[in-house]
Amino acid sequence: MNHTAPLIPVRIVNEYVYCPRLAYMMWVQGEFAHSADTVEGKIRHKRVDKPGGRHPETAGEDTGEIHARSVALSSEHLGITAKIDLVEGQGRKVQPVDYKKGKRPHVAAGAYAPERVQVCAQGLLLREHGFEAGSGILYFAGSRERVRVEFDEALVAETTRAIEGLRTDSAKDKPPPPLMDSPKCARCSLIGICLPDEIGFLAQQREDIRPIYVRTENAFPLYVQSPASYVRKDGGQLVIEEKREKIAEVRLKDTSQVVLFGYCGMSTPALHECFRRQLPVTYMSYGGWFIGHGMGTGHHNVQTRTAQYRASFNEQTCLNLAAGLIQAKIQNCRTLLRRNWKASDDAGDKAPPQLLGALKSDMQQAGRAVSVQTLLGVEGSAARRYFEHFVFMISPQKNEETQGFDFSGRNRRPPRDPVNALLSFAYAMLVREWTVALSAVGLDPYRGFYHQMRFGRPALSLDMMEPFRPLVADSTVITAINNGEVSKKDFITTAFGCNLSPRGRKAFIAAFERRLSQEVTHPVFGYRLSYRRLFEVQARLLIRYLTGEVKEYPTFVTR
Q1: Could you give the CA distance from residue 536 to residue 541 in angstroms, rounded to a whole number?
Q2: Is this prediction's pTM over 0.85?
C-alpha cells in the first residue's frame, strides 16, 4: 500500500459494498446529509461510542476477560481504520461486535453483505494487532438479536476486494455512476445530492424518474433589520435585543440562516454556534445591498471547484452555459408578461402578439450567439423590451389607489422610483439566496461563466439567477404591489434616490419568502418542489454537468 494514502474508515467500506457512488461521495467529496435512519442510528450508538470496559495492554500476555467499548484500531498494511463498538473475548481470542439499529434481516447469510464485510474488516484489524479473531457479531438493536459472522476465506476475499476497489475509485476524478432502478436509493440519505434518477433520465438511460422526497422545511431564515439590534446566543436559542431589551427569540434548530441588515451586531458565541451548525450568516447594507456572508469552514469537496474553474477557462463551455441561461431568462420573462398582463384602455386585455413574437425572436438569437459579447447585446435588447412593458403587469386600479407605481424603465444605483427600489432589493435578495445555495453544494459563487469576474462580485450567483429573475424577483414585486402589501408610504424618497422604509422592507421580505416556499413543477423531471429546494437541485445538476456526468445543463423554464 502507498503509505501516503489516507486510511479508509471501515464504515465507508460498508457504504462501498452498498453503493460505490455513495462511498465516493461521502469519503472523497465530503458529502453528508442526515435522514431519520441516520439520526436514529446516532442516538442508538451513544452508549457504545463512549470508551469503556477493560482494554488489554498487549495481545496474548493477558489471559483475563476482555470487554472494551469504542476501540480505535488502524493498520497501515490493510489501509483501513475503525472504531469498533465492542471487543469481547478472553486472552488472545476476541471477536468484534458491531451494533446496528434495525432488526435482523431474514436472509440466508444472517445479514446483508455490507454489514458482514464491515465486521470482517474489524476482525482483520484485530488480527493485525496480534489477536485471534475467527468470527464477529452483528447486534441488531431493533430485534435484540446477535448474528454470528464467520470470517471464512470467501468473506475475507470479498472484504479485501472492497477495500482495494474503494482505494482505486477514490483516486478517480469523478464518482462511479449512480445505481439504476435500485430499491436501495429510496432510503439513502444522499439521494437529494446523488440525483440517481435525474442523471439517468438526462443521460437517456431511463424514460421516467421517481420523484425525490422533498425535505420538509422546518427551519426558516431569521431577518434582523433594525440598526440598534444585537443578536446573542442563550442556550439553544438566538435572542434579539434592542437597547439591551429582548424583543424576540428563536430556536437555533428552527433557523436556516441569519440575515443582518445595516449595523446589526452579533456576539462571537452566536456566530460560532451558527458556523458549527453550518448556518450561513449574511450581511446586507441598510439599503439592501448584499455585502457578504460566512458559513463555517465551507464545503470540503475540492473536485467540484476544480471542475468549475477548469470549465470557466473554456470559452465554448462558457458560451453554451450562458446561452442556455439567457434563453431561459427571456422565455420566463415572456411567460410572466403573458400570464400577468392586466387589462387596460391603453394595452388591451392580452399581451400584444408583436411583443411576444419579438421576445421569442430574442430567445432564438440568444441560442445562435457566437460569443458572449453577442449574447450580452441580445440580452440587453430583450431586457429593454421587457421592462418597457413591465408596468402593464401592475394593476391599473391598484396603481391608482396607492399611487406612485408608475414605471417607464429600469434605473438603479440608486433606484429613483418605488418600482425600481423594489426590483433592486428583490435582485439583491435573490443573489444572496443563490450565493448561499452555491456555497452549500461546494461551488465557488465568485467564479462564473457569463458575468465578468470582478472583486467581490458573485459572478456564478448572478449567472444562475438569470432564469429566476422574472419567476422569483419580478413576480414578488408584482404580487406585493397588486396585493397592496406595499404602498407609497412604504418608501423614503430623497435627492439621492428611493428606498424602502423598515415597514415596507418587512412586508416585502414576507412576500419574497412566500414566493421561495411556493411549490412549482419541474419542467424536465415533472415533480413538484419549492423554489428554495429547486435552487439546490439546479446547483447540483450544474455540478453533474461540469464533472461530465450529464451532457447538457437543464435550465429551468416554466410554461
Answers
A1: 9
A2: no
